[in-house]
Specification:
With about 400 residues, the protein is α/β, with parallel strands linked by helices. The protein has 13 helices and 14 strands. Helix 3 runs parallel beside helix 4. The radius of gyration is 23 Å and the shape is globular.
Length: about 400
């Protein structure tokens, strides 16, 4: 009997020790479209891995190590919700982060609001995440479609072109970007005309048909929102048919290494773009990030690398400020949270939960046969976001 009692006591002691050990780790659930969007998300994963290593080697946050529980969301809203449920219920996490596609990000935003789980949307760009469909549990890191379109707008207005063709993928991100472009340009140039809108399905663009339709509409300028393989096909067909010649082109994301580097010598010249000229940013914050990234991975960073890295930096800063992983305390901590990133300091606004991390705007060029961004400048997100009063109209039922 005594031996049995000792065994039972030992088993009880072991089971009691397991929760204590688990409490030494802060677990964060992360979900993303790794298989569907590797160009952006492979570097993104490296970015968050590097941040985790940095924090843990320095003792973690609140004296606890950070642990990421990562899952692929299938690039599908329904799958993403099931994954989010698995992470929160099966894995027991109460902090979610990630997502790439805007429709997936919106689905997880809705899940976070219903289940009262903190969610940091890292990459999805649709304005609805922080405005129309926003909720108190969701914050967003990346500059939204509205913000990036607004960053391009000074150059677009200066070009003074009257007839525009729009090309954008037929899902939430493309629709959001096109809507922002039309609204912002019409406000500044009331006589503008949108002579054609080409809206191919994501990943299935018939580039020949798109560029022919654009050419037939005889625009003075083109606004493009395609990215990845769709962008490559568009550029190739457009170059072959001379559709971009003598036409002003503004293009979201096309200066990001993920999307411009694969174009090589076919890359367009003179496009006004948002992007990431990692090779020419000389600020101390970025030089430190670049050196650490290259030392860790023997590779250069992409924009995804920055987003992944700053996602973890943001969560660590929020947890430290909250002094806890409690959901309500974390939400309060993120309101006005200051974060230091490779692009410099930025804050998460209390009014709409949008981060003010900005983006680089410049022109595409070829240098020694390689695509680059030139004449670029960093645009702070705080300089293009609407006021808190305007946000109240855009975010009517967020709380």
């Amino acid at each position: 009997m005594r031996a049995r009692a000792i065994v039972l006591a030992s088993a009880f002691a072991l089971s009691a020790a397991l929760p204590a050990a688990a409490q030494q780790t802060i677990r964060i659930g992360e979900l993303n479209s790794y298989k569907a969007q590797p160009a952006f998300l492979d570097p993104y994963k490296k970015g968050w891995e590097m941040a985790i290593e940095e924090f843990n080697s320095a003792g973690g946050v609140l004296g606890k190590k950070l642990e990421i529980v990562s899952r692929d969301d299938g690039a599908n809203p329904g799958d993403a919700v099931r994954v989010a449920e698995e992470l929160t219920t099966g894995e027991g996490v109460n902090i979610l982060c990630g997502t790439f596609l805007s429709n997936v990000g919106l689905a997880v935003t809705e899940f976070a609001g219903k289940k009262k789980v903190f969610f940091l949307a890292a990459e999805p760009l649709t304005d609805k995440i922080t405005w129309q469909n926003g909720n108190r549990y969701t914050f967003r890191l990346r500059s939204s479609t509205y913000m990036q379109v607004a960053m391009l707008m000074p150059g677009v207005v200066a070009a003074n072109r009257k007839k525009w063709a729009l090309i954008y993928p037929n899902f939430e991100y493309g629709q959001s970007a096109a809507a922002a472009f039309k609204t912002l340009l019409k406000a500044r140039q009331p006589d503008v005309e949108f002579v054609t809108e080409q809206v191919p399905p994501l990943g299935k663009v018939d580039a020949g048909a798109v560029v022919q339709a654009v050419d037939d509409a005889k625009p003075d300028a083109i606004f493009n929102v395609l990215f990845g393989a769709d962008l490559a096909k568009l550029v190739r067909e457009g170059n072959t048919r001379g559709v971009f010649k003598d036409r002003f082109v503004a293009s979201l994301l096309s200066g990001e290494p993920e999307y411009i580097d694969p174009l090589k010598e076919e890359a367009p010249v003179g496009w006004l773009v948002t992007g990431y000229p990692w090779y020419a940013i000389t600020t101390p914050e970025h030089k430190a990030f670049l050196a650490a990234y290259q030392a860790r991975f023997n590779d250069y960073p992409r924009l995804g690398s920055v987003v992944g890295y700053v996602t973890i930096k943001s969560l660590a800063a929020g947890i430290a400020k909250a002094g806890s992983t409690d959901t309500d305390k974390l939400i309060a901590a993120f309101s006005g949270l200051l974060v230091d990133g490779p692009f410099g300091p930025f804050v998460y606004r209390g009014s709409d939960h949008q981060a003010t991390m900005g983006a680089y705007v410049g022109r595409t060029a070829l240098r020694e046969g390689k695509p680059v961004m030139t004449d670029f400048k960093y645009v702070d997100g705080a300089d293009v976001l609407p006021s808190d009063a305007e946000v109240k109209k855009l975010r009517p039922a967020a709380e």
